[in-house]
Design a protein that fits this description.
43% of the residues lie in helices and 16% in strands. By secondary structure, the chain is α/β, with parallel strands linked by helices. The protein folds into two domains: 6-94 and 228-255, Rossmann fold; 101-215, Isopropylmalate Dehydrogenase.
Amino acid sequence: MLSRRIGVGVLEDPDRIAASIAQYTTQYAKEDELCVYTDPKTAKNIFFPCPVVSVLRPDQALVDDLYSGKICAAVRGTLPSHSTLSYLKKVAGCTSLERIVLLETPDGHRFFMGPVGVDEGYTISEKERFIQMGKRLAELFSLPSVVGVLSGGRHEDYGRHARVDASLDDARELSKRTGAVDFGILIEDAVKECGCIIAPDGISGNLIFRTLVLVGGGRSHGAPVVNLNRIFIDTSRANPDYVCSFLLSHKLYLSGIFVCY
């Protein structure tokens, strides 16, 4: 039987993760639903109110246990992004990761958005997959089923620059193929109507994410990797806590939307 345990990576800022675990286990779930993956030094110096896996390479142990079924979901937490995601790609046997992040505006409005990795979402077919999964995620979280597609300009900006024209063409084609709504560059309108928003490419998606979360006072609940058959949540250290990422992992596990063991 698959474990109900969620693995959480910890290296930097261990006190904040420990506090998040205590809050989550007190308010939402039993202690044994979370398990920390960290190194021996951190394990010795910080008390975590849950089981701890103490190893020299916690990034690899987290991914290995996810794929062996020892844990049902993994939250990157504060493990290094590059080494953890590179190892995840190796074990998963894929050349790239596709992430859709659950964002929240300062006034509490939530929506999914992708792509958010700078190397993601540059082809029509990639963005079609983001639309399909984004719509499923939005419906799962009772958000509007409308998916909005963004481009590099207003519709009337066509002809001003080749790159603008290409992004407008992509958005028009995606709208035709999938039924998503073409909002041009008007993200302020898309946020009001959509449960999922598709950025023109990973660079602009990453900029939107960083502007909202790191500058604009919004927050990220975590970014599920949607092209795997395992639940892996990428996270941002900009958030005050990780409780929402734990809840996201738990709900995705219960939904069965990714897990294909």
